[in-house]
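in:
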């Protein structure tokens, strides 16, 4: 039997959901125009007034909001409520420039928690589960976000945070964790450490579900993880600017449901900004319909995806975004061709001899981009025969060329030499000074 956190909302007919979205959108544009100097100025510059927004179709009249807007108005210039109404801040570390600050009213926290409670219920996680949270706690939203959602559904939380991997495995065994939430990279590392300790996650623990996110990962990686550890692996999605992790796949594992009563999604052509049709691949843009402290209008989130409004077998009517290929920011341009690290991962994971850890290294030699992919061999496939190694490198290079349309140099490196990550893995070293 399929369980729902809020069946009435989660199964609401799509036309009713859209009516609700329309009403919330109209209120939202009035709200931000009144309460945020930033939005008033942006709307005025664009020549758009709240009254111009009468239907969902009018959404495209509104200007986009960018991550750089949050940086430019650091720390709280885009907030719509005075500080005394805030109950929490989170801060995302900017790799370049200033960090971004997100503030929450109590309602914002409640909405975030509800979103995750629905998501966790949709993957069959609830009372009786012991959820080990291996996302970092603190200014990063991963740890606390998952924590609140897990408590809300009545599960028992083990707030392990990231790191201290031997101890994580010991606790997983001793306390009987049934669910792990962390980055897929960290879980792979955990599995490696646990194998080295002589503990099989599949046979020696109660783990049955993984909630993996904060970095893109491929369908092929899912197959690897599920086969190696015997768990069901689910994708979780969100970003600190929207609150934090918010949405997961349901048990159908066929796209991530985005709660339409709280968020309005569209996919656009990243070059022209034009809205694309359902089923077309483009950049995801999200409007928050219910946030109070830091609502975002047409926020360009930077991920490339496809929206599906087709009915899902789980009975939920909320639209789905299909597996995220990568962030527009992560896209590499190699000799004029767009390459996502996720595409490389998906090719590598289909080759049984190749291990889960890899690194893309890009150099520019004599004005020419050279892409190299470093891989490790799985234990099962391990060989020290030079011929075997060379033929594996050749096979991988040819599989990558077939998908990426560029020549790639493949280098087999010693097992364990590619850096392991306890958080978001770094999968690209770009030595070009672009
Ligand atoms: Zn579903």
């Amino acid at each position: 039997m399929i369980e729902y956190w809020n069946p009435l909302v989660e199964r609401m007919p799509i036309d009713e959901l859209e009516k609700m979205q329309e009403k919330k959108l109209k209120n939202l544009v009035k709200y931000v125009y009144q309460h945020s100097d930033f939005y008033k100025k942006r709307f005025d510059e664009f020549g758009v007034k709240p009254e111009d927004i009468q239907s969902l179709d009018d959404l495209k009249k509104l200007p986009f909001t960018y991550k750089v807007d949050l940086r430019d108005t650091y720390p709280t210039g885009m907030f719509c409520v005075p500080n005394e109404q805030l109950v929490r801040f989170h801060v995302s570390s900017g790799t370049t420039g200033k960090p971004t600050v997100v503030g929450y009213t109590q309602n914002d926290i409640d909405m975030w928690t509800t979103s995750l409670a629905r998501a966790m219920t949709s993957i069959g996680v609830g009372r009786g589960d012991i959820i080990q949270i291996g996302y970092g706690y603190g200014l990063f939203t991963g740890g606390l976000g998952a924590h609140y959602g897990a408590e809300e559904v009545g599960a028992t939380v083990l707030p392990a945070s990231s790191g201290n991997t031997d101890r994580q495995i010991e606790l997983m065994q001793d306390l009987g964790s049934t669910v792990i939430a962390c980055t897929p990279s960290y879980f792979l590392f955990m599995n490696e450490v646990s194998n080295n300790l002589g503990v099989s996650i599949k046979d020696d623990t109660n783990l049955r579900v993984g909630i993996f996110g904060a970095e893109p990962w491929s369908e092929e990686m899912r197959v690897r993880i599920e086969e190696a550890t015997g768990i069901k692996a689910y994708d979780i999605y969100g970003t600190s600017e929207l609150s934090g992790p918010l949405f997961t796949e349901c048990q159908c594992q066929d796209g991530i449901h985005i709660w339409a009563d709280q968020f309005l999604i569209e996919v656009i052509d990243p070059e022209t900004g034009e809205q694309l049709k359902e089923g077309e691949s483009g950049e995801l843009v999200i409007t928050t319909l219910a946030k109070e402290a830091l609502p975002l209008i047409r926020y360009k989130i930077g991920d490339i995806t496809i929206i599906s409004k087709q009915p899902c077998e789980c009975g939920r009517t909320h639209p789905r975004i299909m597996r995220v290929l990568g962030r527009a920011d992560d896209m590499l341009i190699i000799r004029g061709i767009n390459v996502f690290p996720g595409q490389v991962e998906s090719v590598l994971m289909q080759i049984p001899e190749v291990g889960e850890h890899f690194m893309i290294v890009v150099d520019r030699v004599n004005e020419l981009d050279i892409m190299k992919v470093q891989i490790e061999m799985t234990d099962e496939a391990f060989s020290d025969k030079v011929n075997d190694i060379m033929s594996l490198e050749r096979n991988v290079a040819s599989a990558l060329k077939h998908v990426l349309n560029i020549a790639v140099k493949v280098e087999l490196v010693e097992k364990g030499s590619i850096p392991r990550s306890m958080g978001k893995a770094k999968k690209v070293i770009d030595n070009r000074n672009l």
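note: The longest strand covers residues 354-365.
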